[in-house]
């Protein structure tokens, strides 16, 4: 049975179909075997989505496919939360009461309701939100945890290891969290906990692709490449989901650390609708590129 694939054009998960026609193969066999074999090889290499016929398909186990599916689920969850919130507001909002002594030009002010894409009523702060409780308790002693929590303080309303968690945006990521936490603890007095966090960050990054230890320890921007991947994938998914952008390109940070693969892709325009941008994305971000801080953006075309 053929391995299931994910179609970035229609969003379906299905077994792929091959291009061309078996009838043409049979006709070619009638006249000559070799052209028929060549034609069948071409068909096998040109698979299509069974639902929409697009060539913009990728294996289900690929990081981009998994991130895309998760992004779609997060977006659906967010829309459900917003719909429930609007229903609750419409049901619980009191009828307006006229105040005869209040001038019509000065209506009473109603404070805006702050809405969060993520609002978790938990006790363990960001450590619990990202599922790191067991690691946090096992790896650090009481004194180390106290220093870390005091250093971290409150960031965007969230504490490191206590209280609930709120985010205005849904695209939060454990790699971004560990990278930011590591950056906060670069001071000399945090060198012991820095090393322990760096080990866990390497474990999480290793789920994305194989880690090169020499590059991890010595190459500038190698670690940050992993923390930027979710925002890159989210940007790519948004370009496709909005049905507004017809073309996209890669924005390159051009400095002394930029290497040739990034310079080669600079200013090239890729079609969003036929999957060309998807394929360029997979090729460019297949593995960490030295000095790469490229981002993706779209054009209406």
Please, could you describe this protein's structure?
The protein has helices at 22-31, 33-45, 63-92, 125-129, 133-139, 142-152, 174-184, 191-205, 213-218, 222-241, 260-265, 276-284, and strands at residues 5-7, 13-14, 17-18, 47-48, 57-59, 118-120, 154-155, 158-159, 165-167, 247-251, 270-271, 295-299. It is mainly alpha-helical and 301 residues long. The protein has a domain at 5-59. The strands form 5 sheets. The chain has a 3-stranded antiparallel sheet with strand order 2-1-5, with no helix packed on it. α7 runs antiparallel to α10. The mean pLDDT is 80.
Compute the gyration radius: what is it? 26 Å
Proportion of residues in helical segments: 40-55%
Shape from CA axes?
A: globular
Which class of secondary structure composition applies to the elements? mainly alpha
Strands ordered across the widest β-sheet: 2-1-5
Q: How many E strands?
A: 12
> Which regions have little confidence, pLDDT < 50, spanning 5+ residues?
none
* Largest sheet data: 3 strands, antiparallel
- The end-to-end distance, rounded to whole angstroms, is 40 Å
Strand content: 5-15%
| Helix-strand string | EEEHHEEHEHHHEEEHHHHEHEHE
Classify the oligomer: single chain
Query: How many helices does DSSP assign?
Result: 12
Q: Give the averaged pLDDT, no decimals.
A: 80
Helix-strand blueprint:
Blueprint: E1 5-7, E2 13-14, E3 17-18, H1 22-31, H2 33-45, E4 47-48, E5 57-59, H3 63-92, E6 118-120, H4 125-129, H5 133-139, H6 142-152, E7 154-155, E8 158-159, E9 165-167, H7 174-184, H8 191-205, H9 213-218, H10 222-241, E10 247-251, H11 260-265, E11 270-271, H12 276-284, E12 295-299
Antiparallel strand pairs: 1-2, 1-5, 3-4, 6-9, 7-8, 10-11, 10-12
Helix pairs in contact: 1-2, 3-10, 7-8, 7-10
